[in-house]
Amino acid sequence: MLKIALAQINLLVGGISVNQKKIIETAQRARDELAADIVIFPELTITGYPPEDLLLRPDFIKQANQAVLAIAQAVQGIDIVLGYPESANNYLYNSAAVLRDGSIFKHYRKNALPNFGVFDEQRYFHAGAEPCLFSVKNTVIALTICEDIWQQGLIEKNKQQGADIIVTLNASPFHAGKIHLREDIVCQQAKKAEVALVYVNTVGGQDELIFDGASFVVNTQGEVVFRAEEFAEQMSVVEFNHNMPTHNTCSPLYNEISSEYKALVLGVRDYVHKNGFKGALLGLSGGIDSALVLAIAVDALGADHVEAVLMPSKYTQDMSNEDAILEAEALGIKHHVIAIEPAVTAFNGMLADLFAGAKTDSTEENIQARCRGVLLMAISNKQGKLLLTTGNKSEMSVGYATLYGDMAGGFAPIKDVPKLLVYQLAEYRNTISAVIPQRVITRPPSAELAPDQVDEDSLPAYSILDPILEMYVEQDKSAEDILAAGYQLADINRALSLVDRNEYKRRQAPPGIRITPRAFGRDRRYPITSGYKGSQ
Amino acid sequence: MLKIALAQINLLVGGISVNQKKIIETAQRARDELAADIVIFPELTITGYPPEDLLLRPDFIKQANQAVLAIAQAVQGIDIVLGYPESANNYLYNSAAVLRDGSIFKHYRKNALPNFGVFDEQRYFHAGAEPCLFSVKNTVIALTICEDIWQQGLIEKNKQQGADIIVTLNASPFHAGKIHLREDIVCQQAKKAEVALVYVNTVGGQDELIFDGASFVVNTQGEVVFRAEEFAEQMSVVEFNHNMPTHNTCSPLYNEISSEYKALVLGVRDYVHKNGFKGALLGLSGGIDSALVLAIAVDALGADHVEAVLMPSKYTQDMSNEDAILEAEALGIKHHVIAIEPAVTAFNGMLADLFAGAKTDSTEENIQARCRGVLLMAISNKQGKLLLTTGNKSEMSVGYATLYGDMAGGFAPIKDVPKLLVYQLAEYRNTISAVIPQRVITRPPSAELAPDQVDEDSLPAYSILDPILEMYVEQDKSAEDILAAGYQLADINRALSLVDRNEYKRRQAPPGIRITPRAFGRDRRYPITSGYKGSQ
Questions:
Q1: Residues B225 and B217: beta-carbon distance below 8 Å
Q2: pLDDT tens, A184-214?
Q3: Quick check: is A132 catalytic?
Q4: Which of A348, B53, B235, B343 is the most exposed place for a label (fewest CB within 10 A)?
Q5: Which residues of chain B have a CB within 8 Å of the CB of A497?
Q6: CA–CA distance, B351 with B346 (Å, rounded to integer)
Q7: Would you say residue A147 has pLDDT above 80?
Q8: Are residues A65 and A156 in the same domain?
Q9: How many CB atoms lie within 10 A of CB A45?
Q10: Which of A110, A159, A262, A415 is labelled catalytic?
Q11: Cα–Cα distance between A9 and A232 in angstroms, integer?
């Protein structure tokens, strides 16, 4: 029997020595506690994924290559398969090494280098062209890395060369529904080539990306016979009788809404912890967005590490303050109340001469939002807690947010969550325990920056806006396409022109967690200066 | 005689219909006023460069391809060579078309697609593999696009196929010294292959990039015999007797310091105008950075379109206000004085309970900077003027700036200018006319956020800091390398650790003008969450 360990671990991008230590401990556990013959780590294990332009630093590459040798020396008596940026022949490769008996026994260089969406691998790496097969206990293993197995032909080529089991090292980022896409493609490929396949994914949050784990094993019939947990580290061992996995234990898949929620929680937890913050704080308005972000933050960090600040103005309704306090109490977190009027009054006075005779406009609304930004940043600076922003994807799309105001903060948990999904996630969170007051979910959304203001004064209803935005931003549909899908031209033009003209705001927004196939971030790179107009 | 027109024009990224109109007018001028046989436009003429992810939109590509046909129809009686994103065989190519007699007569698909530095062409384009040669007045012209001619072999291959003249369409971005590098490589290639070469570059600012024009013609001996102006639009015609250019009129090259200054002026002018702002404003502190930015802004936009705001605090020295006013008066711009004390006092009062017992730290300094940010943004919002930030590259590197404070603004003209170069540029500007008071240049730099504060309290002297930063940020040198270059370990560690830990600030900074080989922007892509430590 061949025992393959799947090391689904959470790595620190750039943290070579931290990762080295973790890899050594994990490999020792696989050998000593699980009696594995071989342990498989995720793609670019040594550096974490994606290391971005750190890969251009010679000192970084040198350290990474030294770490591989150090690991080979440190852990013997088990084959270790790990990923690293391999420096050879004046090229850099995205490689996997097989460590055996203290040295690099084999290496594989990734053939297919993705350079689309969130990926920039052709910026850094040279493509390999050779397969890599080796034997463990008379079973032939072939190595592949992530994008390789999304391509047609590579698995069959390995099978023809004698592979019994395909092993694949991955850093496959999450978005809603991705896991089905991923398993479907891999299972079809395994079935077609009649090979077993061991898929090891990394897990954790890295700036805007979430890696969801859910490593799995597929038998030669293309069936998933093992699946590790989603959104958590897990060390597992799967036994093979030649190319036949001998057991069948699959962690059930979460449904879409709960997987999105778990991704958001993991994203906040990893961003706060990996960046060394003491906790998080946020402005709690009594509205749905900050209510959801607060619940996520508490689930990620624990109530003791989260604080909320209520910053009412004369436009804040009593129910907003009441509901904010109800949620803070339900979650057991510390909260503060600081009315913004003194600062707003000061600014309006300081600007009175200059603005004399000018009409009141969004300038005055922005001053309120920015006074809140100054207060929250002061508390963040003083306490060493990360300020979370609370804007959602619908707002980010149309620029319904104030730069340096409610957009001030280090991390934007729900930046990629459209408003309608914000409601669904809030309802979902309340099914675990009722922490978000029902009135927060049912009242009409408002920025409360002017008397009796509601979002629908300036924007189409979210039930209309959100699908338009999804078609335009995520699917690259034109106004014509969206019209053909049954929406009104006025709504389309309003939405599209707002998206077009707010790129400058998004460029200065904090990073947030990607949960859709296209977030505002690495995978949507638009010019600010642009004559393109999507509206008609 | 063959008359080739070089159309060095300024395009609007994404503005297909604006660009189409300009191309038609320019081609008509080349035909009617210059009697040219053929007119050459820059790379991706139709869309401007770089269009980034607009290239993923099917509607955008369709419009671009339709525009090429419309231009062919609109202007006949002259060959037109222009660049466009060609959609064919389910691929997108970075192509050049030769328009003749109302239709596309020939097309060339760029062979070498750069995917490094500021370039991401493999994200969008499929590489062509074929040459493209055609005859005009019995002279054989071969087409190439930008990166193609930086590669060895392609020019010679075209020569072997019979090319008399190589024509190359470019969008080659500026950095200091780039023009020498560019001309040297191209001249060597032309000389080696014994062909003449016509190099047409675009000109203008596009977000952080500056295209510097300076189109040129090289004879078969590898000599530059014609050069268009740097940093300005120019239509020129060069006559050829077969492959021999018949005249020799080269605009002189600017020296490095004046080319940097001109790049900054062009960058500000194009960002403000192309984005439709009514002008610009900035906070004028009496320090060197804002003094330089003000001069650049006035040179870019004219005194009538620039306003300065003085926002003194109790830490502001009298000479700061005096010098700021002196410069405003020398440049003939409107200025306002708004003391920040009322807002600072309001915030400190609002936070007094929460901060009771806590030590004074950078929080209080940040509050002052953020009060200035709120004031400037309010004026920007009310007047429709773009707020310019005044931070330099040294500060951006080490995070010596306040997010949402002095970093608030839409565009950062000197973001890529190291502090020592700020002084040189100020001295240079004063040689044109003395507008920056001498005391601004000679006094020790200070943020004036605490009593008697000077930059060197918290940072190594700029004469030490700047070279360390250049080695670390632009050249990817390690601490060990920098130590070997003769710097002190304490200074190195201080600088490198500040660079490492301030990526989060840079990510939220406004875009600025790239003038070095590596700016903080498209060409330096670092993770925020990172375990990498450059310090020792």
A1: yes
A2: 999 999 999 999 999 999 999 999 999 999 9
A3: no
A4: A348
A5: none
A6: 9
A7: yes
A8: yes
A9: 32
A10: A110
A11: 8
Contacts of B375 in chain A (CB under 8 A): 347, 350-351
B110 catalytic? Reply is yes
Tell me which of B206, B241, B276 is where a domain ends. Answer: B241
Same domain, B275 and B214: no
> Is the CB of A267 inside 8 Å of chain B's CB atoms?
no
Tell if the CB–CB gap between B527 and A378 is shorter than 8 Å.
Answer: no
Q: What is the 3-state secondary structure (H, E, C) of B378-412?
A: HHHHHHCCEEECCCCHHHHHHCCCCCCCCCCCCEE
Per-residue pLDDT tens digits for B233-256: 999 999 999 999 997 789 999 999
Q: Please indicate if any CB of chain B lies within 8 Å of the CB of A59.
A: yes
Residue B407, phi then psi, degrees to nearest 5: -85, -5
Q: Please tell me if residue A337 touches chain B, with a CB cutoff of 8 Å.
A: no
Asked whether B499 and B473 are in contact (CB, 8 A), the reply is: yes
Q: Please give the average per-residue pLDDT across A370-390, as a whole number.
A: 98
Angle between the N-to-C axes of helices B419-432 and B462-469, in degrees from 0 to 180, rounded to the nearest 10: 110
Number of domains in chain B: 2
Cβ pair A358:B528 closer than 8 A: no
- Residue B155 sits in a domain whose CATH number is 3.60.110.10
- Is the Cβ–Cβ distance between A187 and A222 less than 8 Å? yes
- What is the residue-wise DSSP string for A397-425? HHT-S-TTTTT-SSBBTTTTS-HHHHHHH
State whether A52 and B527 contact (CB < 8 Å): yes
Contact indicator for A416, A394 with CB cutoff of 8 Å: no
Instruction: Please state, in angstroms and rounded to a whole number, the distance separating the CA atoms of residues A32 and A21.
Output: 16
Is the pTM above the cut of 0.90?
yes
The set of residues, in sequence order, having a beta carbon less than 8 Å from that of A490 and lying 6+ positions away, is none
For residue B50, whether the previous peptide bond is cis, meaning omega lies within 30 degrees of 0, is yes
SS3 of A459-492: the string is: CCCHHHHHHHHHHHHHCCCCHHHHHHCCCCHHHH
Q: Which of A507, A367, A60 is nearest to B275 (CA)?
A: A507
Q: How many helices (H) and strands (E) does chain A have?
A: 17, 20
Tell me the two tokens of residue A125: 């790496």
User: What length does chain A have?
Assistant: 536
Same-domain check for residues B295 and B400: yes
Q: What is the CATH number of the domain that holds B444?
A: 3.40.50.620
In chain A, the percentage of residues whose pLDDT exceeds 90 is 96
Q: List pLDDT tens digits, range B380-439.
A: 999 999 999 999 999 999 999 999 999 999 999 999 999 999 999 999 999 999 999 999
Of A241, A276, A295, which residue constitutes the final position of a domain? A241
Q: H-helix or E-strand containing A442?
A: helix A438-442
Q: Do the Cβ atoms of B53 and A526 come within 8 Å?
A: yes
Cα–Cα distances (Å) from B197 to A1, B147, B219, in that order, read: 68, 15, 7
**Residues of the domain holding B372:** 259-456
Question: Which tokens hold the place of A335?
Answer: 């909260």
B42 interfacial to chain A (CB closer than 8 Å) = no
Q: How far is A521 from A411, CA to CA, in rounded Å?
A: 13
d(CA A54, CA A212): 23
**CB–CB of A339 and B350 under 8 A?**
yes
